């Protein structure tokens, strides 16, 4: 008489693994080469940035927020600035609003091109990795030209922007933009027409529109599944309300939405082209005027010290919506600061994306959401395998106690 035996087995991947650029733990249940179930565990990185921000004045927090994520080093401090400006009632000059758009879209170009190179690397197409990163170098050159830095830009200021774009800088900017336009068709052809990319990405890592909505996917991950969400349009900020652009979904190019890795490639490539157009529109429409509401830092700090209230700052980062909650109570430092990075919302969608796929597809499926674990990880608490909920006060108390032990 035959007995039933278990046909599946467990494979742990991470938190340190050659296919992972940052620490995250996967536990896969495998049947042969097929993934049956997935469990994702975070909590391997916790840098106490939010706690440190409540020990600094708002202008100092801007430079701390830049270091939440090196690739999103503009959108995080800017989302924080948006929240503080709402609390303090600061009106940002019109010219600064257009300058903010330019830097946001340049960061999107840098991020999406970097992602394209990583995606190529994950399927073993390293020659394309080097091609895309050559283009990214040009984008970083332009970033350095406009801000003085390549990664942590130091361009954000509460009430505006720290550096202007003068007329004599326009030729250099347009030259770089033209370079991207000239090379865009080459990149588009490689990623969307090459047989290798199609075979590895079409029908792979599918996230349906219903799953994307249910699991709260954001950014290109959600739009690739046909969900039309974009903070730039849904809750217009900066000068986006004056610019002409629309949601980017795969059907814009192919006439259909499949929600697979291939569609996520389409969305990001088209968004690079869209960002070029938004920068050109901003340069053309940008009015004259000041670039900051209050140029005297001492006076600005005095204004912020009197601010009392709470607000949120929402921004469409390259990976999706970044959300900063800030509470101020009339003291020098923010009373509370909480950050939700877009990857936090794009982790649960990994589960339906990976179920039913092959082991070899794990790296490209996970990379297709462009994850950033360093700006996502929070505290994980397990005690005797019991499931329970910590209330906000208790979790905050334990977090502060641990941080003080680690950073006396």
Write a structural description:
This protein is an alpha+beta fold and 408 residues long. The protein folds into two domains: 65 residues, no CATH class; 319 residues, Cytochrome-c3 Hydrogenase, chain B, CATH 1.10.645.10. Helices cover 47% and strands 12% of the residues. It is built from 17 helices and eight strands. A hairpin with a 2-residue loop joins strand 4 and strand 5. It is globular and about 70 Å long.
Gyration radius over CA: 22 Å
Query: Which residues form runs of ≥5 with pLDDT under 50?
Result: none
Oligomer: single chain
The total of beta strands comes to: 8
The share of residues in helices is 40-55%
CATH topology of the largest domain: Cytochrome-c3 Hydrogenase, chain B
CATH architecture of the largest domain: Orthogonal Bundle
The biggest beta sheet is recorded as:
3 strands, antiparallel
What count of structural domains? 2
Structural class: alpha+beta
Q: What letter string, H or E per element, gives the SSE order?
A: EEEHHHHHEEHHHHHHHHEEEHHHH
Annotate the secondary structure layout.
Elements (H helix, E strand, L loop, with lengths): L8 E5 L11 E7 L2 E8 L7 H5 L4 H8 L9 H14 L5 H29 L3 H22 L8 E2 L2 E2 L8 H24 L1 H7 L7 H6 L4 H5 L7 H4 L16 H4 L6 H25 L11 H9 L2 E10 L2 E10 L6 E5 L1 H5 L3 H5 L7 H6 L24 H15 L2
Antiparallel strand pairs: 1-2, 2-3, 4-5, 6-7, 7-8
Helix pairs in contact: 2-3, 4-5, 4-12, 5-6, 6-12
